[in-house]
């Protein structure tokens, strides 16, 4: 998994964006479930962080043919 962020929203200084890149959708599901169902998130992080978040939104997207990464390669990883 690659993580890009935090990125500040230019239109709203109270909004922060994060992007996560996974090699496959099955990797995304495995990593996501392992983290959000794990003890660190459930006992330590979620109780502290979620009350601070007014709005949470997540989208899953995929790259288009010919997508290039920031390094110029044609792969996310």
Describe the structure.
This protein is an alpha+beta fold and 77 residues long. The protein has two helices and two strands; from the N terminus they run ββαα. The chain has a two-stranded antiparallel sheet. Strand 1 and strand 2 form a beta hairpin. It is flat and about 40 Å long.
Summarize the structure.
The protein is an alpha+beta fold. The protein has helices at 25-36, 39-49, and strands at residues 2-8, 16-21. The model has no long low-confidence stretch (mean pLDDT 86).
Which descriptors apply to this entry?
alpha+beta; 2 strands; flat
Count of DSSP strands: 2
Number of domain units: 1
- Mean pLDDT rating: 86
- The portion of residues assigned to helices is 25-40%
Instruction: Please report the number of helical segments.
Output: 2
Distance between the termini: 8 Å
Which sequence of strands runs across the widest sheet? 1-2
Structural class: alpha+beta
Largest sheet entry: 2 strands, antiparallel
Uncertain runs are none
Instruction: Please state the overall shape, judged from the principal axes of the Cα atoms.
Output: flat
| SSE ordering | EEHH
Kindly report the oligomeric state of this protein: single chain
Strand content: 15-25%
| Radius of gyration computed on alpha carbons | 15 Å
